[in-house]
Design a protein that fits this description.
- The protein is mainly alpha-helical and about 190 residues long.
- The protein has 8 helices and no strands.
- Helix 1 packs across helix 7 and helix 1 runs antiparallel to helix 8.
- The longest helix is centred in the middle third of the chain and has 23 residues.
């Protein structure tokens, strides 16, 4: 599937996230996350509204992920056995942030570099969630649900949505050949 189509659908999902993602998000908000279980991860402080003031947001630990998204990912996937999914989401968050900044800059070179990064992210998601079992719809749905969650977190301001839209517009009409990534994931220890 072309990257552009996937990204277009992703942008559309921002406005209409799947009900399962909304239910999961509501459950987190209502039940609250066990903050003591998250302390082992040494997460940055919540930037609050200051994290929405610029496209870049706040990345106080300089790991390439906005603090608000990093915290949201760890709250969404707090269990040790969710390590690979969490790391896949972190890799995706870095790519989405790069797409926001490239779209805002309207720099064609940066936009093309980010499109390759996102292509690699899609391969990582496929490897992480689906693996060799491409017939298991539940694995596919879990990946889509996590994508919807991350899109809601990443594109949380009008300016970020607009910049991501600009990024997608710059890719419109371009052809992207299939590329095989033997090791598409940036898995690291927690």
């Amino acid at each position: 599937m072309r990257l552009y189509r996937r990204l277009s659908r992703a942008l559309n999902n921002i406005a209409k996230p799947p009900i399962t993602a909304l239910v999961a998000l509501a459950a987190l908000i209502i039940s609250g996350c066990n903050s003591s279980s998250l302390k082992r991860y040494n997460l940055p402080p919540d930037p609050g509204e200051a994290g929405k003031a610029t496209l870049e947001g706040i990345d106080s630990n300089n790991n390439g992920v906005r603090d608000d998204i990093e915290i949201a990912i760890y709250e969404y996937k707090p269990k040790p056995e969710q390590l690979k999914e969490r790391q896949s989401l972190i890799q995706s968050a870095k790519a989405y942030q790069a797409a926001i900044l490239a779209g805002a800059s309207k720099d064609d070179t940066a936009i093309m570099q980010v499109s390759e990064t996102i292509d690699r992210v899609v391969s990582c998601e496929r490897k992480t969630y689906i693996g060799d079992d491409r017939k298991d719809i539940n694995k596919y749905l879990a990946k889509e649900e996590d994508d919807a969650f991350l899109q809601i977190a990443a594109f949380n301001t009008k300016e970020r949505k607009k910049a991501y839209w600009e990024y997608n517009q710059a890719l419109s009409g371009k052809f992207f050949p299939y590329k095989e990534y033997p090791n598409p994931c940036d898995y690291i220890g927690d």
